[in-house]
Amino acid sequence: MADQVKLHGNWLSPFSSRVIWALKLKGIPYEYVEENVADKSALLLQYNPVYKKIPVLVHAGKPICESMIILDYIDETWPVNPLLPSDPFHRATARFWIKFIEDKSLVLWGVFMANGEDDREKARKATLEVLQTLEEQAFGDEKFFGGDEINMVDLAYGMLARWMPVIEEVVGVKLLDPDMFPRLHAWAENFRQAAVIRDNLPDHAQMVPLFKIRREQLLQIARK
Ligand SMILES: N[C@@H](CCC(=O)N[C@@H](CS)C(=O)NCC(=O)O)C(=O)O
């Protein structure tokens, strides 16, 4: 079909989930292609020859790569239920915090990838600093970032609501502490409970054993 929408993703990926949530929030029908990131399909390599990563959205045969660029594309192509504020100042603020999480996402995975006690402690402190900045500067007392409705910033930060608790369990360290970060913690709870997110959120219990295996693999590679 001329305007067919296809998503190449992986169910464990927070970047894929961003796109799924955006499509669902806008009610856009799409076909989902589950990719094995350890054995990428020829089609994925053809669609994203530069980074060779999921997610890739294919609309009318044309591939769009990088999750936040895909979200912009979705928002511009299907304006129903806008994902960004219409006011230029609020839109600029939303984009600022989206850039912040894009810049800091490796820090947030630091504890998961850290090798040894010292590295882990350094990574834990770096993560807490990022969370502190978010707690003090980004998240207010509203239900979601933009108020009562989920917007693009919430989707960008979805990793904190599901993947971070999985990292905490796999590594055995508390990061998103409700006493230290009450606003962020409340936001994560609200986000997980929103119907579109709740119905399209990978299962914590299913993720934990797979992330344990992945972490072991990463640690083995680092030891070599
Ligand atoms: N910046 C990218 C990150 C995407 C990404 O890291 N995807 C991972 C899965 S979570 C991937 O495809 N990894 C395969 C690889 O690195 O070879 C985005 O936002 O889309």
Automatic annotation (TrEMBL):
Coiled-coil residues: none
InterPro entries in the cross-refs: Glutathione-S-Trfase_C-like (IPR010987), Glutathione-S-Trfase_C_sf (IPR036282), Glutathione_S-Trfase (IPR040079), Glutathione_S-Trfase_N (IPR004045), GST_C (IPR004046), GST_C_Tau (IPR045074), Omega/Tau-like (IPR045073), Thioredoxin-like_sf (IPR036249)
Family matches, as PROSITE patterns: GST_CTER, GST_NTER
Residue ranges occupied by any GST N-terminal domain in the UniProt entry: 3-82
UniProt xrefs under Pfam families: GST_C (PF00043), GST_N (PF02798)
EC number from the UniProt entry: 2.5.1.18
Keywords: Transferase
GO BP: glutathione metabolic process
Bilayer-spanning residue ranges: none
Any one GO cellular component localisation term in the record: cytoplasm
Residue stretches making up the GST C-terminal domain: 87-211
Reaction catalyzed: RX + glutathione = an S-substituted glutathione + a halide anion + H(+)
GO MF, one example: glutathione transferase activity
Highest taxon in the source lineage: Eukaryota
Stated family: Belongs to the GST superfamily.
Name of the protein: glutathione transferase
Gene behind this protein: LOC111479821
